[in-house]
Amino acid sequence: MKIKISHVLCIIISTAVLIAASLQYPPLKNTLAAEKNGWNSYRGKVLEILDTSVEYYENGNGLKKTAILFSVKLYDGEFKGRIIKAVQMQDDFIALKSDAVKKGDSVIILQLNGDASPSLAENTPNQEIFDNPVFVFEEFYRFSSMMVLLFVFVVLLLIFGGIKGLNTLISLVLTCASLFCWFIPSIFNGANLYVSSISVCLYIIVMTVIIVNGINKKSLASIAGCFGGVLVAAALSVIMKNAMHINGYLNNDSLYLESLLPGGQKDLVAVLFSAIIIGAVGAVMDVSMSLSSALYELAESVKDISFKQLVKSGFAIGRDMMGTMANTLILAYIGSSLSFILVLIAYNSSFLGLLNNQIIAFEIMQALTGSIGILCGIPLTTFIASALYSIKIIVTVAE
Questions:
Q1: Domain with CATH 2.40.50 in the chain
Q2: Total-model pTM
Q3: Which of 58, 119, 222, 274 is the most buried (most CB within 10 A)?
Q4: Are 296 and 389 in contact (CB under 8 A)?
């Protein structure tokens, strides 16, 4: 019962900390284009493709601009149940474009003019709608598919994990909430990114470990080893960004982000710093928790085991972990940037220039600093866990 109480108390305290942190920063308002311009979004289903207009660019080598007019039934908002006409624009000069809509698709419709009535749109000639659309295609509605996938994940987590699975799910919800209700708002409100990112990482580490495993020596060793490894990765990223001349301007998105950040918060390198340590915390926590648990089981199985024996076993277990976890982290970073890496390879002037490209250099730095954090987390966790498990005077709390 004590363990269950400790879990409940940790969840309550973690939630209170999260609420207090989120209240420190005002809610994000007017950050989306729709909010700034007074536009409205509605969910609907395409009933019929009404017309298609194609316009070729002069001397555009066959490039064209296509407008697709379709009818859609809206499922929410003030026009719920109404059937309107909307337009989807596809321009070959724009690289980021969606598939063409077809009958039966679930879509998101954006109302550009809040004063327009859908009944007027229904009675307007098609050409006028093409030239001056009121309702336009924004995106395909994908949320229901994501919810199905999330449901499968939750069910499997609860089936295989039981109570631990439930605790994991709670910690995952709080982790996501800490990023979107605390960390990201702090960026747009001008907080110190270095302090904010480290604080969020410490919160995630402590909250996750305690909710999943309770308050005990195993958790204490895991938290200390994990946070130590993350701090090593953080220190290395600060040192290497100066040595490698990383200025934060990786692509056009960096310039756009800089224009969105508030005054005094234009340090894009701090954003990259945050990306490095937040990306590393999950892998380092996994290694630290696994190693701490393995040594705990060993200490429970072998009575009066010495500190030296635990350290030796910890390093032996850690050697098996480090290879797979380092590969996991590096492959995750490469996989997430694969498309962009392929473009760089295709268009770079030389192999030497490719290796020294700032984007490639940052990806390598991110992968290696995170991996070094894992490697440093192994001995830290080993020594701390061995000391806690071998010294019997230490009293375990809620264990």
A1: 33-141
A2: 0.77
A3: 222
A4: yes
* CA distance readout (Å), 194 to 80, 174, 275, 281, 363: 46, 21, 11, 15, 19
Contacts of 270 (CB under 8 A, 6+ apart): 193, 194, 248
pLDDT 10s digits, 128-164: 566 566 888 988 999 988 999 999 999 999 998 888 8
Mean of per-residue pLDDT scores for the chain = 80
C-alpha–C-alpha distance, residues 50 and 198, integer Å:
54
Per CATH, the architecture of 33-141 is what? Beta Barrel (2.40)
**Cα 199–218–168 angle (5° rounding)?**
65
State pLDDT tens for residues 277-333.
Answer: 888 888 888 889 889 989 988 888 887 888 888 889 988 888 888 777 767 777 777
Q: What is the largest CA-CA distance in the chain?
A: 87
The amino acid occupying position 87 is V
Which of 140, 146, 114, 142 minimizes the C-alpha distance to 46? 140
Q: How many CB atoms lie within 10 A of CB 351?
A: 9
Task: Name which of 297, 240, 306, 227 is nearest 272 in CA terms.
Answer: 240
Task: Specify the pLDDT at position 2.
Answer: 46
CA–CA separation, 43 and 52 (whole Å): 22
